[in-house]
Design brief:
- By secondary structure, the protein is of the alpha/beta class.
- It has 3 domains: 128 residues, Protoporphyrinogen oxidase, mitochondrial, domain 2 (Polyamine Oxidase, Chain A, domain 2); 174 residues, FAD/NAD(P)-binding domain (3-Layer(bba) Sandwich), CATH 3.50.50.60; 102 residues, Guanine Nucleotide Dissociation Inhibitor, domain 1, CATH 1.10.405.10.
- Helices cover 27% and strands 20% of the residues.
- A hairpin with a 4-residue loop joins strand 11 and strand 12.
- Helix 2 packs across helix 9 and helix 6 crosses helix 8.
Length: 518
C-alpha cells in the first residue's frame, strides 16, 4: 500500500534556496553609471576581485611573499566559490567540489600547501611524503544503483556481456596509450595543472571533436562504457558526452595516473569537501577580505585602476595600482570599462553550465533493501538518472549510524535552456526533483529527510566543449590588460581546484614580480 500513496500527498521537509545572489550579480549587465561619495574612496596597491579558490590562492601567495597592501573583494556573504561549504550537525558539508586527488610530486606549490595544512607529512628531496589515512577517502568509496540494487564501484560489471568486457579492456588500452604518451620535450599529453600539458598537434587534434565522436571512431558502442564515459563528463564538466571535447574526456581518465598499471591518485576529502581548503586560505588572509562587496565597475587608467563596489547598499571606491580579476572570464566585458570596445580576448568564448546542489539533512539513514546490497559509500551514483547521485558527508568521519547529511548534485545539461529553467524553478520544484530521484533507491527518503537546502549555481563551471581548449582564446586571456591580471579556473578550460590554485599563484607572481614555476 505504501507504493500506492499519492506522491503529492507526501509531507515535504522544510528548506530554502540559499547562496548565490543572481539579482546582485546581474547588476553588471545593466551597464549603470556609479558615483562614489568622496569620503568612500581608499587607496590600496592591489585589489583581488573574487573570493573563490583562485582569488584566495592569490591572496595567500601575496601574503606569504610579505606583500600585504591588498584587499580581496567577494560578491557573496561567504567565500569559497564552488568550493564553499556549510556548517551543520553532525558534520559540515560541501556546496560544490568535495575532493582533491593527491597531487604528483612535481606539483610543488600544491604539495607545499598540503604540508602547511599538515595534510602531507614529509616529502621533498626525492621522497613523496605521506598523506595520513584519515585524510584519504575511506572505503567503500563508490557504489552504483542499477535496477533496484546497489553494486560496488562506478563501472557496472554485473551482468556485462563478453562484448562489454572486450570493449572495456580496449578502452583501458586507449587510456594507457595516452597516460604513457610524451612529446619531444618530454611533456605528457594530460597532467595537472594543465599548463604543463603538451601542445603537440596529435594532442590538440583531440579538441576538435567531441568525446562521443572519439568513442565512436574507436568502435566503442557498449552501453555500459558509454554511460561510464558520459557520467565522467557530467561529473567533472557538467556536460554530456556529445557536448564535451575529446581532449577533456581523456584528460579526466589520464591526468591523475602516473604510468600504465598504476591506480589513479587517491582522493583527499573531508566532510565539508574542498571547503576545508577554501576556509584555510581565507583564515590566512581574512583581515584583508571584504565580503558582500559586489564590484560593479573597473576603470583602468594610465597609472592604475579604479574599482567601484556595492556593499550594503552603499558605493565604495578603491584606487589601485594593479588588479587581479579572479572572477569568471565572461563577466570581464560587463565589469571592465572599455573592454568591449577594444577586447583583448573574446570573453563570450568562456561558456559556463548550470547546476543545482541540494543538502538533505536526514534523521536516520535508509535501511538496505536487500541483504546483498553493497553498503552506503562515500559517493553514491544512480545509474538510471540524469543526476550525479549524492555524497555522504559523515562517511569520512566513520559515523555509520544515525543522522547524516547527503549532498545531491544535478547538472542541467539534459535541459534545453537549463540556466533559465533553473532560475524559474522554486525551492519546492527542485526539492521534488531531488526527492523523486532519490526515491528510486530509497523509498523512505521522504520520511527520513528533515530539511533540504538548495543552492542554484547559474554559472557553475567552465564548459570544455570542442574547439575551445586549444583555440588560443585561453592564452590571450592570460595576458595582463591595462594593469589587470586574470586568474580563474576558466583559463584552464576545466573547473578543478588545482587549476584555480595554479592561476591564483601565477597572477600573484606576476603582481609581485617573482617568477612562477609551473
Amino acid at each position: 500500500m505504501a507504493a500506492c500513496r499519492d506522491h503529492f500527498s507526501r509531507q515535504f521537509p522544510e528548506g530554502e534556496i540559499v547562496g548565490q545572489s543572481a539579482t546582485l550579480g546581474h547588476i553588471l549587465r545593466e551597464n549603470r553609471g556609479f558615483e562614489v561619495p568622496v569620503d568612500n574612496w581608499q587607496k590600496v596597491k592591489v585589489a583581488i576581485i573574487g573570493g573563490g579558490v583562485a582569488g584566495l590562492s592569490a591572496a595567500w601567495k601575496l601574503s606569504k611573499q610579505s606583500f600585504n597592501d591588498f584587499v580581496l573583494l567577494e560578491l557573496e556573504k561567504e567565500i569559497g566559490g564552488t568550493s564553499r561549504s556549510g556548517a551543520g550537525q553532525p558534520v559540515s558539508y560541501p556546496w560544490g567540489a568535495h575532493y582533491l586527488p593527491v597531487p604528483f610530486e612535481e606539483n610543488h606549490d600544491l604539495r607545499n600547501l598540503l604540508g602547511e595544512m599538515l595534510i602531507l607529512k614529509g616529502g621533498g628531496e626525492g621522497s613523496p611524503g605521506i598523506i595520513p589515512e584519515q585524510y584519504l577517502c575511506r572505503d567503500p568509496e563508490e557504489r552504483v544503483f542499477y535496477k533496484g540494487r546497489w553494486y560496488d564501484g562506478l563501472y557496472l560489471h554485473t551482468g556485462e556481456s563478453e562484448e562489454d568486457k572486450r570493449q572495456y579492456v580496449e578502452f583501458q588500452k586507449q587510456v594507457d596509450y595516452w597516460v604513457d604518451w610524451k612529446d619531444e620535450k618530454g611533456r605528457r599529453a594530460f597532467v595537472v595543472p594543465s599548463a604543463n600539458c603538451s601542445n603537440d598537434a596529435e594532442v590538440t587534434a583531440l579538441d576538435k571533436i567531441t568525446f562521443g565522436e572519439w568513442l565512436r571512431q574507436k568502435g566503442f558502442s557498449s552501453d555500459r562504457l558509454i554511460w561510464f564515459c558520459d557520467y565522467a563528463c557530467r561529473d567533472d564538466y557538467g556536460l554530456k558526452l556529445d557536448q564535451t571535447s575529446a581532449w577533456a574526456g581523456l584528460f579526466y581518465f589520464c591526468s591523475r595516473v602516473r604510468k600504465t598499471g598504476d591506480e589513479s591518485q587517491s582522493f583527499i576529502t573531508f566532510p565539508e569537501g574542498n571547503g576545508r581548503f577554501a576556509n584555510y586560505l581565507f583564515d590566512k588572509v581574512k583581515d584583508r577580505v571584504r565580503k558582500d562587496h559586489a564590484v560593479v565597475s573597473i576603470i583602468p587608467g594610465e597609472k592604475g585602476v579604479d574599482l567601484i563596489s556595492l556593499s550594503g547598499g552603499e558605493l565604495r571606491g578603491f584606487r589601485c595600482e594593479k588588479v587581479i580579476f579572479a572572477s569568471p572570464m565572461f563577466t570581464a566585458p560587463y565589469a571592465i570599462r572599455g573592454f568591449a570596445e577594444n577586447a583583448p580576448f573574446v570573453a563570450s568564448e568562456f561558456q559556463h553550465n548550470a547546476w543545482f546542489v541540494a543538502n538533505l539533512f536526514l534523521k536516520d539513514r535508509p535501511k538496505p533493501r536487500f541483504a546483498r546490497d553493497f553498503p552506503l559509500a562515500w559517493d553514491n551514483v544512480l545509474y538510471e538518472s540524469p543526476s550525479l547521485g549524492y555524497v555522504n558527508a559523515t562517511h569520512q568521519k566513520g559515523i555509520d549510524y544515525g543522522p547524516t547529511i547527503w549532498t545531491y548534485y544535478y547538472p542541467m545539461c539534459h535541459e534545453e535552456n537549463g540556466r533559465t529553467k533553473l532560475f524559474n524553478y522554486e525551492w519546492s520544484d527542485l526539492a521534488d526533483v531531488c526527492l523523486t530521484d532519490m526515491a528510486r533507491a530509497h523509498p523512505e527518503i521522504y520520511e527520513l529527510t528533515e530539511r533540504i537546502d538548495i543552492m542554484r549555481w547559474g554559472h557553475a563551471m567552465i564548459s570544455p566543449r570542442p574547439n575551445f581548449i586549444w583555440s588560443g582564446v585561453r592564452e590571450k586571456a592570460m595576458q595582463p590588460y591595462r594593469n589587470i591580471h586574470f586568474a580563474h579556473t576558466d583559463l584552464s578550460g576545466i573547473a578543478l581546484f588545482e587549476e584555480a590554485f595554479y592561476h591564483g599563484l601565477r597572477a600573484a607572481s606576476e603582481i609581485s614580480g617573482q617568477k612562477h614555476e609551473r
